[in-house]
Design a protein that fits this description.
This protein is an alpha+beta fold. It has 9 helices and 14 strands. The structure holds pyridoxal-5'-phosphate. Belongs to the class-IV pyridoxal-phosphate-dependent aminotransferase family.
Length: 308
């Protein structure tokens, strides 16, 4: 039997500025916590490479935005930064990374509404990143298109659906992934009921076109679905777009339809832990141009790796 991956758990608690460290193998939450009974809360998932959390400010800002959408009062960013730094340092000192090439920790920030009438429960959890994500960056993934059942205007019309917030209610996203796995696929791209490309259950969709302009120069365009279509604003997409723009890429924001994916030179799903995963097939059909996909993946992965 393999031993469970080591987890460092630290609760945010005003009496412990560096976090109240707790045993992750023991029960720590009350069964009446509204995060447990209703999935009422928010979270972030970040990646620490070599002990440094990537895109920390963007994640803290998004956590604040998600909490505001739920009217949830959460600890301030300074408190989060202290506990995150302490949890990552503790994990690395208790479990020195054996392989520098795999020195990656997943750092989760979680806030639940807590027990009715009491303060929210907030914690940081650090654990080793699994090998599966690293593998998919190399091999690429097969995805299927699934209907999410909402139209692309619903986020604005019905803000209580919390579509742009990263809430703890991820059961639907996980069910979509299980559905894909049963079909032999690795991942999902959700479509709106009006046929727009939205996002993956845990990732943002990107596509690229490469064209020769009239003067013979190569124009590279990186495109993502428009943010107001009820998707989560990806911190990875935001950071990569800034880096790609600085490197001379043109940028575009949807609306996108499935045929835009099929006609692209390359498609990726991007997220903080798996990073840039090239999409090989959609609904069984090969997409993109393999040599172009390979070249663009290498270029964008390099730009993304340089981001802190
Ligand atoms: N969209 C959804 C629904 C997600 O859950 C995630 C991340 O988990 C993303 C997009 C990508 O966000 P990020 O790049 O900030 O990890």
């Amino acid at each position: 039997m393999t031993s469970p991956a080591p987890v460092v758990l630290a609760f945010l608690d005003p009496a412990f500025p560096d976090g109240r460290v707790a045993d992750a193998t023991q029960p720590q939450l009350l069964v009446t916590d509204l995060g447990v009974t209703r999935g009422d809360g928010v979270f972030e998932t970040m990646l620490a490479v070599g002990g440094t959390v990537r895109k920390m400010q963007a994640h803290l800002d998004r956590l604040g935005g998600s909490a505001a959408a739920l009217d949830l009062a959460i600890p301030d960013q300074e408190a989060w930064r202290r506990v995150i730094a302490a949890a990552v340092a503790r994990h690395r000192s208790e479990n020195p990374p054996a392989d520098p090439a795999a020195d990656e920790l997943v750092v989760k920030l979680v806030v639940t509404r807590g027990v009715e009438g009491e303060a929210p429960t907030a914690w940081v959890q650090a654990s080793p990143a699994g090998a599966a994500g690293r593998r998919q960056r190399e091999t690429g993934i097969d995805v299927i298109l699934l209907d999410r059942g909402y139209d692309s205007d619903v986020a604005e019309r019905a803000p209580w659906l919390l579509l742009g917030a990263k809430t703890l209610s991820y059961a639907v996203n996980m069910a979509a992934l299980r559905h894909a796995h049963k079909q032999g696929a690795d991942d999902v791209i959700f479509l709106s009921s009006d046929g727009r490309v939205l996002e993956g259950p845990t990732s943002t969709v990107l596509l690229a076109h490469v064209e020769k302009s009239d003067d013979g120069t190569t124009v590279k365009r990186l495109i993502t679905p428009q943010l107001d279509s009820g998707i989560l604003a990806g911190t990875s997409q935001g950071a990569l777009f800034a880096a790609a723009k600085a490197a001379g890429w043109e940028l575009g924001y949807g609306p996108l339809e499935p045929r835009d994916l099929m006609d692209a030179d390359a498609v990726w799903l991007i997220s903080s832990v798996r990073l840039l995963a090239p999409v090989n097939r959609i609904d069984g059909k090969e997409i993109g141009t393999p040599s172009v996909q390979k070249e663009l993946t290498a270029e964008l992965s390099g730009l993304f790796a340089a981001i802190h």
